[in-house]
Specification:
With 233 residues, the protein is mostly helical. It has two domains: 2-108; 170-232, no CATH class. The protein has six helices and no strands. Helix 1 packs antiparallel against helix 2. The longest helix has 89 residues, at 44-132. The chain starts with a helix and ends with a helix. It is a multi-pass membrane protein. InterPro entries: CorA_TM1_TM2, MgTranspt_CorA/ZnTranspt_ZntB. It is found in: Membrane.
Amino acid sequence: MNLTQELHIIRAHHLHYSSLLEDFRKTVEFIRDTENPALADLSEEERDWSLTIMARETSNLLGEILRLEKSRRMQDRRLRNVMNLVFSSVNIDDSKRMHKMAEATVRDSAAMKQIAYLTMVFLPASFIATVFGMNVKEIVPDSLGTIGNYLAAALSMTLATAWAIIAFQSKHHFSPGTPLWKRFNWPFVLLKRRFWPDSKTDDNEEPADIEIKEEIVEVAHTSTQDDKKWKDA
């Protein structure tokens, strides 16, 4: 992390030096291309000599600026190479950590499979023990309950649980704004869609859509009656 920050600081310095070199180049070009008003009082020979010296010095300065700019670009390329190497190293470390996490996940899943297999081994014995532990007349003669009572209670609770789960999870059968008491009517809705698919009113429609359809039907009916009256007249 510290190395990455230092590399970014160096990159910021490079950008600052680049802006300084660009400003310096513009200044030298301005001095080279702009005539000095003080040269107007000199003789032609002195003016030519001064312009020659100025052109030579500005050319040298521009060449030096170009050399520094090339050196800066080379340093910038090297810096980018180092930054890419750092980022690649970070990505490699992240990949190693992700690989270790994947291996740990595989080990956990293998352990869960072993637990599931162990549970499956003892499941028949647990079921038999539960059956023989029931207080019903068929097993314990002094008990009041029977297997019929057990089956009736178990089946009713199972059906009620399945009914509630489907009512809460039936999002694809009803619109998002459907109240809960309508969701509990999911068996009737499924039967209606199964045996009467061409019904005029869809349970998934919003109340506003139903009202709009009713208004359209009413307007159409009114216009039909007006047409009949006009024809009779």
